[in-house]
Amino acid sequence: MSELLIRGARKAYGATLALRRGDLHLLPGEVHVLIGSNGSGKSTLCKIVAGSVKPDAGEVLLDGKPVTIAGPQAARALGIGIFYQELSLAARRTVAENIYLPALPVKSGVFVDRATLEEKARRVIADFADVAGEGFSADTPVETLRADQRQLVEIMKALATEAPVLIFDEPTSALDRAQVDRFFEILRRLKGEGRAIIFISHRMDEIFAIGDRVTVIRDGETVATSRIAETDQATIIHQMVGEREELATPSVAPAVHATSRATVLSVQDFSGPGFRNVGFEVAKGEILGFGGLHGQGQSSVMRAIFGALPHQAGSITLNGKAHAMRSPREAIAAGCAYVSGDRRRDGILQGRPLLENLTPIHFLRNRLMLARPSRLRERALKPLQALKTKFQALEQPINSLSGGNQQKIVIARWLIDRPDVLLLDDPTKGIDLAAKTDLFALIRELAAEGMGIVLYSSEDAELLNNADRILVFNSGSVTRELTGADRTRYNLYHAAYEAA
């Protein structure tokens, strides 16, 4: 049995303060829920305990004794195991290998002891055998598994450590009801054995079903700890929001949606991987926000509209004309643009000059085979200047720019030839405050000029400050629409957590 105490944990990444003051007291034989909005500091606090993040200040005590957790191996040696929100599996290895990857059994000091490995793995898998689904076994390669099955492997990996202190960072996000119920049965058993468990979840029903105590983190600070039996959902949400329930005041007020404006984008009965029965309209000059907890289908809907993901049902109408959107090429030709927050995966051409990164959409939309460099440079400079992009020359490689300026390049490429609809999929992810300010100033200008904009952001303030309406997503569907004075931080949280 282990008791864990964290006092005054602090972590900054440059000018970004991820954790201002993290406090947590974890007792043996309890499930301690950690809750807070996206970016509040929950995961950072857990990574400090797990040794994958080194704090700038604060102390960690295990059974009353100060400890220094120099890395993940040191954490394991101290009896701390973690399930990471971002899956850390080796895709080409088997389920058994992944479960015991940190400590594979060997024979002769060199070779993996396959018989021992598979026997140990089968004992862990047995707890989930009847809910894991077809094709799940110790020797199955992880790359062939479904998302829920991969998440089960990550859970098994944490359970296999047999650590006295276990941390689960949103472990149920991809699981079905039967899998969640089985996981909770196991947690209750471990709790009865005296294990100390930190459990992060955005689902209120799960929090009240499994938790003993709950600690709320807001804006990087621990603000409250309560016994689950002595609190309720409304109190927890108020603690998460604090006093800021009113609509945050933007630096420039968002445009007021006018119902008389022409509809530029209409999506009806839209269903596909990760979303179902989604419907909405976007008027010219409107910024429509997608809100809700992270990973509830917002990005999938955008990518499907853009043709980067398939959709099985529903219709897409752009400027009054129906489109199948079978590919990004078709979406671009129809006047649709898509900007991803994952610029390394979906945006920049690594190592190539700025000019090459700026002009591929211009070539595609205008079906160009050749173009004058001077003419291209002239067209490329205008959106760069509008975004206040900092660079030396269009010939320099994009990797030489800061993250914020790289994202400005990705946005600028769509503005050389103005689209009718701009889909922004968490566009400010990982960029600094100054770059965010420049981006949103331009986004509001584009809306004022009549462009239809759909904005998903994992930061609630960005939605509240900039969106005319907010559609709250949960489990792939729209559960509530917030308009006018209803666009408050409290209502946004309440809609997301109530549905969850």
UniProtKB/TrEMBL annotation:
SUPFAM superfamilies on file: P-loop containing nucleoside triphosphate hydrolases
Coiled coil: none
Pfam families from the UniProt entry: ABC_tran (PF00005)
Any one Gene Ontology molecular-function term assigned to this protein's record: ATP hydrolysis activity
InterPro entries: AAA+_ATPase, ABC_carbohydrate_import_ATPase, ABC_transporter-like_ATP-bd, ABC_transporter-like_CS, P-loop_NTPase
Keyword Oxidoreductase: no
Keyword line: ATP-binding, Nucleotide-binding, Repeat, Sugar transport, Transport
Domain ABC transporter: residue ranges: 4-244, 256-500
Family classification: Belongs to the ABC transporter superfamily.
Official protein name in the record: Monosaccharide ABC transporter ATP-binding protein (CUT2 family)
High-level lineage: Bacteria, Pseudomonadati, Pseudomonadota, Alphaproteobacteria, Hyphomicrobiales
